[in-house]
Design brief:
Oligomer: single chain
Strand order of the largest sheet: 1-3-2-4-6-5
Helix content: 25-40%
Radius of gyration: 17 Å
Structural class: alpha/beta
Order of helices and strands: HHHEEHEHEHEEHH
Low-confidence stretches: none
Number of strands: 6
């Protein structure tokens, strides 16, 4: 099992697609890892085994989902006791896209209540701990997702970022956290903190895995009026390139700080 958990998502997806790795065995390995959660990274498990692994780009890959995404028939609390026991009647577009890509939801992850925080100490269900040092924070508000990925309790996860809630936990836990361009990923079914800034995005262990996840959840959604009505850029192709020579890179001078 330990060997399976060490695979990148790109490697595991390729082996599952080729028939060299059982999707069931792979999911069960991650299910066991998540069940041993001592970081309070998860708020609830989801019986992803009940859904057949699809044949899409993430076929058979488990994913942890920040508990700010509505998931039909599964508790969605946004880290608050106010919503304890609430089961939405619909599923967020980003999660539906994961399902269509063959991914299997592993569980819902802890967060600062209604995403109001940057440490995941302010969840109604207790704080999440940093896997590198349990006396320290994992960042927030999406610390549950980043802690789960960093601790090898999930191969990848999705979170949301308003002012740093994916990127800051990524920096604190040593994971790859990306805030896509606003409107690049649908906000439909996402419990809002600040609708003019919120954006869903990936939390992974490698840049390529982040690109694979982004390419699945991104793109136009007619259910979201702020969704960008343009084709999604080829982020996986860019991540696989591996050589930045000849690329044009923009730098915002005002963000340089000291």
């Amino acid at each position: 099992m330990g060997e399976l958990l060490q695979l990148s998502v790109a490697e595991a997806a390729a082996r599952i697609a080729a028939g060299d790795l059982s999707a069931t065995e792979y999911f069960e390995a991650w299910q066991a890892a998540a069940a041993g959660d001592e970081l309070n990274a998860y708020l609830c498990a989801v019986d992803g085994a009940a859904h057949e692994a699809g044949s899409g780009p993430l076929g058979g890959i488990p994913v942890a989902v920040k508990d700010i995404f509505c998931t039909e028939g599964t508790p969605t609390t946004a880290g608050s006791r106010i919503l304890e026991g609430y089961e939405p009647p619909y599923t967020a577009t980003a999660v539906r896209k994961l399902d269509a890509a063959g991914a299997r939801v592993l569980g819902k992850t802890n967060m600062d209540e209604f995403a109001m925080g940057s440490s995941t100490e302010h969840s109604g269900y207790g704080p999440t701990h940093n896997p590198w040092d349990v006396e320290r924070i994992p960042g927030g508000s999406g610390g549950g997702s980043s802690a789960a990925v960093s601790a090898f309790e999930a191969p990848l996860a999705i979170g949301t970022d308003t002012g740093g809630s994916i990127r800051q936990p990524g920096a604190v836990t040593g994971t790859v956290g990306v805030k896509p361009t606003y409107g690049g990923v649908s906000r439909y079914g996402l419990i809002a903190l600040a609708s003019s800034l919120d954006q869903a995005g990936p939390c992974t262990r490698t840049v390529l895995d982040a690109a694979l996840l982004h390419e699945v959840i991104g793109g136009h959604d007619p259910l979201d009026s702020t969704s960008i009505d343009q084709p999604l850029p080829p982020v996986v192709e860019a991540a696989r390139r591996g050589d930045v020579r000849g690329m044009r890179i923009g730098l915002v001078k005002e963000l340089g700080g000291e």
